[in-house]
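This section describes the prediction task in plain terms. A model, or a person checking by hand, is given the sequence of a single protein chain and must write out its three-dimensional structure as a string of tokens. No templates, partner chains or ligands are provided. The sample shown here is typical of the held-out split.
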Amino acid sequence: MDTALKRQPLIGMLLGWKISEPFLYACHSFARERGCGFYYFFTGGIDAGQRRIRGFSWNGREWEEGWFPYPDVVYDRYRRRWKDKSGCYDPLSGITSTHTLPANPGKVAFYRVLSRHPEVKKLLIPYLAKVRPDSLIDFLSKHRKVVLKPNGGTHGRRTLFITRKESFYEVDDQSHVHIMNRLDLAELAEMLNEQGFLVQKAIDSRTRDGAPLSLRVHLMKDGAGAWTILSILVFLSLTPHIGITNHEETFRSFSVWENFLRSQYSRAEGAGLDKRVRSCALAVAAALELEWGSSFHEIGLDLGIDPSGRLYAFESNVGNVGMRFGELQVARSGMDYAAYLAGKQQS
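The expected answer:
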């Protein structure tokens, strides 16, 4: 172990799986810039009796394995408190952590937060938390096309669209379209209700060329503990019959935010939309923190844009937010926030 690690505030990054070498080195470099030592470790390397952890630190040439003292701050990229089977969280319970949410809140919990805060309530899509036969029929009578999806995260799997026709219902499972009568639909509703599904009005969020789209706004806390926007990406489904941009069977593409605005809007329209998206995202982050406290520091917010230009919130992810297109920014912000928490302990 590098003896310098003993004298500095120490950040330990908790992992549940292998992660890219560039991200690891970026975390080491940004931690060092902020006057902190850094090592990473996995869930099985904790020796609670000796208050030490088996991990890896950069020795100038390679990652060197060794025993390290408990860190001042755990940068948690595992984020599995509610379903962890390794038992890693109990021995770390007295250490400041970047992520302490006891459970994954789910979509319904997110929608309820939106409904309670006027500044973000306009983003709320009409929904029903339960898929009961009579309420589903009434909801379809009002909105004509709805989407049914599990309350937990499934990356678009098992998502259904239902459209009311004159004398039947079309049920689109993203692979096939099924024709159902009212009795069939009632049986489907009973089954999905038992599986924890919810129902929402379907939002027609598409490019001008007709490709289904969603916006992913990636937010993290910075070195002052304030929310900041790392990136805005536009995800597209290029498979015509699949309306879910993150569905595993669709041919997906993405655009950086600036290119999307230039291709779809005039300069003034694009500037206005950019301002609204950023303002809404920061307002959502503030509302979630008011409800859930400072128990998380990263949000993946998924938004849609209807044909009139109105923004809607599809869902939010405060667990393992993807970083495939922004590892460097995530590493910088993660170390900024962990160093901020370490500094608070010493002040």
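For orientation: The longest strand covers residues 37-47.
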